TrEMBL record:
InterPro entries: PCRF, Pep_chain_release_fac_I_sf
Superkingdom per UniProt: Eukaryota
Protein name: Peptide chain release factor PrfB1, chloroplastic-like
Domain (Peptide chain release factor) ranges: 19-131
Alphabetized Gene3D superfamilies for the sequence: 3.30.160.20, 3.30.70.1660
Transmembrane segments: none
Source organism phylogeny: Eukaryota, Viridiplantae, Streptophyta, Embryophyta, Tracheophyta
Matches recorded under PANTHER family: CLASS I PEPTIDE CHAIN RELEASE FACTOR (PTHR43116:SF3), PEPTIDE CHAIN RELEASE FACTOR 2 (PTHR43116)
Length: 186
């Protein structure tokens, strides 16, 4: 509530200054500059507020594990998955996050079949969690001898990177069901 009253107060201050300049015969540039300064500060405050609201999920402050898999499209999809991996690594490095490829499975001709990338840093999961889903690219295939347009897909899963001490999960013994089956061939 306090933040809302601060925003309201800033708007009222700017409105008062604008009304004063409208009532005066000569335009006072310093008053208009003061109103502009208040409006700029209000915009910055609103942007910060919006960002904190967007990154307010339970795991948004954590690092991220990004799992990329090549989908339909053969070699082109594997190349697309490799492009996505490089893109996420560069983004992480640009944000000054620690990036590490944990697992990678290379494609036969080019690209990757799958890869797991860890991104460690504050709010890494919050920022990159929107990337989860299926990513599509349509391009002239460098792997097609006819140079035809190819549509390729890659899947991206994003999970929070939780500290090991936070994973203390206990399952009550009565909830455990361990059973065995045996298959006998004839």
């Amino acid at each position: 509530m306090r933040l809302l009253s601060d925003f309201k107060s800033m708007v009222e201050d700017a409105e008062t200054i604008v009304k004063l300049t409208e009532e005066m015969d000569s335009t006072d540039v310093s008053l208009l500059e003061e109103a502009m300064g208040i409006i700029k500060e209000l915009n910055k405050s609103l942007d910060r507020f919006e960002l904190t609201q967007l990154l307010s999920g339970p795991y948004d402050k954590e690092g991220a594990v990004v799992y990329i898999t090549a989908g339909a499209g053969g070699t082109d999809a594997q190349d697309w998955a490799d492009m996505l991996l490089r893109m996420y690594m560069r983004w992480g490095e640009k944000q000054r996050y620690k990036t590490k490829v944990v697992e990678i499975s290379n494609g036969e001709e080019a690209g990757i079949k799958s890869a797991t990338l860890e991104i460690e840093g504050r709010y890494a999961y919050g920022y990159i969690s929107g990337e989860k889903g299926t990513h599509r690219i349509v391009r002239q295939s460098p792997f097609n001898s006819k140079g035809l347009r190819q549509t390729s897909f890659s899947g991206v899963e994003v999970m929070p990177l939780l500290p090991e001490e936070a994973v203390g999960i206990e399952i009550p013994e009565e909830d455990l069901d361990i059973s065995f089956t045996r298959c006998l061939g004839n």
